[in-house]
Records
---
Amino acid sequence: MTISAGYWDTKSITQRFCISSRTLFRWMERENNPFPAPCMQAAGSANRWRIEDVLAWEASEMDTQAA
């Protein structure tokens, strides 16, 4: 079963890609294929990303690296 609905927080994403939170935010600043911005964010609260946005970015990133 593939999870494609719902939200992931920063910790879930950093664990998925084995990266630090700083690297995640660097990816968001890239010119080519930037990581999507969180859909929910608030000061002092966890950021949340739509799972489908992250999966779409991941597929795009794989295509970019394969080229």
---
Amino acid sequence: MAEMVVRPRDVLLMRFRPTLMDDLLAVSTANNRAGLRPVLLKDYVQ
């Protein structure tokens, strides 16, 4: 699997599938490496 890179203002959509836990861990790792934290989309969309 290629290394995931995230940037500020990226929107990540997740699907419930058998690899969801691995996907969540990959997103968490990428966020930590980039010094980012997840926020709720509803806080930015009206």
---
Amino acid sequence: MQWKNYIAAIADRGMTQKQLADEAGCGQPAISDLASGKTRDPRSSVGLALIRIGQRLGLDPADFSESCRSAA
């Protein structure tokens, strides 16, 4: 998963990092680290929550998979 791009897409839909962190059950610094690329892999519970949030906002997680990046 390209978390940096996924979080950017969520932000483009109007969610702040703080709102995203609150809903995902983690701290805003964890979201910031993912958004900046400092951290590449969140805890599984956070990752699943981020996927659900993105899907609710109309994102398709498959569009952000590592294999899509390799194919581009």
